Amino acid sequence: MRVPNHPTQIRRMLESRLKLLVPTGPVLVASLVRLNKRCGQPTCRCHHGGPLHSAYHLTYRQAGRTRNAYVPQDLIEEVRSWIQEHRRLKTLTQEVSQLTLALIKGHVRHRRLRRGRL
Ligand SMILES: [Zn+2]
Description:
Elements lengths: L6 H14 L10 E7 L15 E10 L2 E7 L4 H42 L1
Antiparallel strand pairs: 1-2, 2-3
Helix pairs in contact: 1-2
The structure holds zinc ion.
């Protein structure tokens, strides 16, 4: 993202991003990890050289500790979209922060210029 110098342009860019900074659904701060594992059935092909079963886990942090949660197969696509929604909001928040900072810096610069003229 290119940050403009003019406060009006900065505010315009800020407004367009603030409008998008609304969750469109559940938001999940976690990583989806795919694991290949054997099941609990000793007679299953996975115990006899056959392909292993795919399972999905979530990794997330809570109170400074990394935790895991099992994700049922039928929820995986939804969970992916909830994680993607967090990424979208995170990127937007970073851009909004950058633009807000530019607004402060521009304000200071503008004031200095005015003082210089006096
Ligand atoms: Zn199995």
